[in-house]
Design goal:
The chain has 11 helices and 2 strands, in the order H-H-H-H-H-H-H-H-H-H-E-E-H. With 282 residues, the chain is an all-alpha fold. The radius of gyration is 19 Å and the shape is globular.
Length: 282
């Protein structure tokens, strides 16, 4: 019931105010700690300290609330900020709407959801990057936290969300050893969710190609949902000078973006409902 409530809150209300958002708190801690990180060892220490600060209270709250008659209601409220689908769909749609009016505005909007430089991207590249972000974040921002909640409760979802936020802030290659622990921890936690997302997105007849295409990306995980979406839509997705997924296919158009949004929304909420029902029956 808690997972169903959280899904309903996401669909109807979206994100809570930033002052009440635990992911915002995680980001503030990570920003403070980064100034104190000097190398791999201190990076691992401050990462572990943050994991303890955010995941341990969540584990304890789960143990405390689960036996209560109305504990599921409070757990649903606490779970909601640890995943997001409505906001993801809205951000990708906003890029497409901006693209139909002004390329510069679309580049600026895209820069809010991707880490790459967007100032010189073409119309095709803007659309491809938006779809890549949609696919990757379908795993990172929705399916992974819900899966860890189903397996390990609120503490599992909190730990995953913290690790993913730490990777987004610390895990860039240019940070070297300072961010290496955060990057590897995120890679480990995403091994299963990324592949599961890819298999669910990609038609079974193309699973063989999925594993070949996914290996083209530098990330050991992000290639799976991105390649799956490229194969499902029959389009090319690429990052200039780095990789091209399903390269023989045409670049996506606006109709592909619309279809991708429906696919992501249906798959995201559908998997959430399945996990909720499986948990209730279990």
């Amino acid at each position: 019931m808690s997972l169903l409530l959280a899904l309903l809150l996401d669909a109807l209300l979206g994100e809570p105010p930033s002052r009440l958002h635990p992911v915002v708190w995680m980001g503030r801690y990570l920003g403070w700690a980064w100034g104190r990180v000097r190398g791999f060892g201190s990076g691992a220490f401050y990462w572990a300290l943050g994991a303890l600060l955010f995941a341990l209270p969540a584990f304890l709250l789960d143990l405390l609330l689960r036996p209560w008659a109305w504990g599921w209601f409070l757990l649903g409220l606490l779970l909601k900020p640890l995943f997001s689908l409505r906001m993801l769909l809205a951000e990708v749609l906003a890029v497409e709407e901006a693209l139909e009016k002004n390329l510069g505005a679309a580049r600026a909007r895209l820069s809010q959801i991707v880490s790459r430089r967007t100032e010189d991207l073409s119309v095709e590249e803007v659309r491809e990057a938006a779809l890549e972000s949609l696919a990757e974040n379908l795993s990172d921002s929705l399916l992974a936290p819900l899966l860890y909640y189903a397996l390990f409760g609120l503490g599992g979802a909190a730990l995953y969300r913290y690790a993913n936020t730490a990777d987004a802030m610390w895990g860039y290659p240019e940070h070297g050893a300072k961010g290496a622990f955060a990057a590897r921890a995120d890679d480990l936690l995403n091994l299963l969710p990324a592949r599961l997302t890819g298999l669910l997105l990609c038609p079974p007849r193309l699973w063989g190609r999925l594993f070949r295409e996914a290996r083209k990306t530098p990330s050991p995980n992000a290639g799976f949902p991105m390649a799956a979406l490229a194969l499902r839509l029959g389009v090319r997705l690429r990052k200039r000078g780095v990789y091209a997924l399903n390269p023989e296919a045409p670049s996506p158009g606006s109709t592909h973006v619309g279809k991708a949004l429906w696919l992501a929304g249906g798959l995201g909420y559908g998997v959430g409902l399945f996990l909720a029902l499986a948990g209730a029956l279990g």
